[in-house]
Design a protein that fits this description.
Order of helices and strands of chain A: HHHEEHHHHHHHHH
Number of helices of chain A: 12
Largest sheet of chain A: 2 strands, antiparallel
Distance between the termini of chain A: 54 Å
Structural class of chain A: mainly alpha
Strand order of the largest sheet of chain A: 1-2
Oligomer: homodimer
Helix content of chain A: 55-70%
Number of strands of chain A: 2
Shape of chain A: elongated
DNA sequence: CACGGTAATATGTCTGACATATCGTCCGGC
DNA sequence: GCCGGACGATATGTCAGACATATTACCGTG
């Protein structure tokens, strides 16, 4: 069995949909849907056909369908089959859906900027909330992540993990369950930025001072300062991404805005 | 079959997890998990036990488990069974998870305010973005929803639907896929607010002028004005909810903050 | 006490069958 | 010729039973 590429395994922190048969199939079909292989309201292959294609039983295929339907990617009806749902129905903030949409090399630039704009809305506000609401424990988590960033500032591969931890720790320090839920967005975004940034040289540590400002403002309970510092950090990220996406961006979706470039004005995006 | 309470059916707009057997079971188990019946990392009943309990086959129970695992509520491992995951792992922005957590009468007040604060972060920013990015079509959608609100201002039951449409139309007018994904949060929140507000008298139309301000500012492409107007609208909502939740709030979670009331200062929450 | 083997157990997978809703088609009547 | 009901085809929905596999707990042996 396993007719496709063999053991591709993660080190740790596997996505919720992962290792077993149903997860594998869900990942393939899900990726295809977000990549536009199956257009909205278009039929995806039937259960029997997918059994044949993946060498799996119908139970497994059905379980994969349930995974995808829980994420808003498909909907099944008797007799008529299973159809891909339109983008508005997708659970865009779901970790898996985000990962599939931001998969290396295939992400459409428009969505990358949508994610950046959304982060520019949420994360500065979260930093401000964190400045007001942090506790000893949640502040320590931010500090720990920052310390690890300092230690790994020379190596982009090592830097990514504490960077993600830093941003998630800020969200956690808000104490707000909904804010914490954005961690998936930040994590997916940073994971992708690292991938596209790693194609170009340069030490990752350039963003260290900006992170330090965020941490310092939160520690001294300066909400306005934390907001501004996080915004500055995201502006830097935006400029980086803009530069890199411009040249390495999605080969698939170079359709409408031919000459016109997508403008990322993070400051105006928030207000 | 169907040993439990029979046909409870929705009129329209059913949640993604809905009508079939697996959806029914997922809804019950999912509700129980978010309600704290199964504590983090605690075992939920095994597949066989649930087969017995719901009079369903193991396939159906397993499909229900896949629905829940896709939403981050459970994780299964061989031999050890299936466990409820901790709150941080839940897909809090998922429409079903939100609906289960905000279910009438059972919502914990802390989470209700978390949702409000998050809306106070996202929706004013969305209004500002909508002011800049709206097109003829997306503006028309806002206008249509507002017109319907005016028409139904006398009846709280009829008012809820166009109110939700209004807020979702604003999100849609941003043209930002991530912002649009917040529609689930707004929808769940408004759906709940209507339920708790309907226990008290008063015409719903009091919020009409505030909605009008939002629409007017967006139409004239006044980003700052749209931001401020939406913020004012949410402040009003906060005051309403605060008043109502204070007296009708969750009977389950009256634990830590005994005398201290949860303060909803929306302005400071955003910055 | 340490260690290795073994049985018990819950999920993971497979198979084949039947149930049911729904679409397309065909046929007869008006 | 057009309309409407009957009927079969079809894809998902459900069921039942069996076996596979990983992991734990137990137990006996060195």
């Amino acid at each position: 069995m396993n007719t496709t590429s063999g053991g591709r395994r993660r080190k740790k922190k596997q996505a919720s949909v992962a290792v077993d048969g149903a997860g594998r199939i869900a990942e393939e079909i899900g990726s295809a849907i977000v990549a536009g292989v199956y257009k909205p309201d278009e039929l995806v292959p039937g259960e029997i056909e997918l059994c044949r294609r993946y060498g799996a039983s119908r139970s497994v295929v059905r379980e994969a369908f349930k995974l995808l339907s829980a994420k808003g990617l498909i909907a099944s009806r008797r007799r008529t089959g299973t159809r891909a749902r339109p983008r508005e129905a997708w659970n865009t903030l779901d970790a898996d859906v985000l990962a599939w949409r931001l998969k290396s090399g295939k992400a459409e630039p428009k969505f990358v900027f949508d994610v950046l704009h959304a982060r520019a809305v949420v994360e500065p506000a979260a930093a401000a909330m964190a400045a007001r609401s942090h506790t000893r424990a949640t502040l320590a988590a931010i500090e720990e992540a920052f310390a690890e960033m300092e230690r790994t500032a020379h190596d982009a591969a090592l830097y990514a993990d504490p960077d993600i931890r830093f941003h998630k720790a800020v969200l956690a320090a808000t104490g707000n369950d909904v804010m914490i839920a954005f961690g998936a967005l930040t994590e997916a975004a940073l994971g992708m930025f690292v991938r596209i940034a790693s194609r170009h040289p340069g030490a990752p540590g350039a963003s260290l001072p900006l992170h330090r400002s965020v941490f310092a403002a939160i520690r001294r309970r300066d909400a306005e300062g934390a907001h501004a510092a996080m915004m500055a950090l995201l502006e830097r990220t935006s400029r980086n991404v803009e530069r890199n996406v411009a040249r390495s961006g999605g080969a698939a979706s170079r359709k409408k805005p031919r000459g016109r470039r997508i403008v990322v004005d993070t400051r105006r995006a928030l207000l």
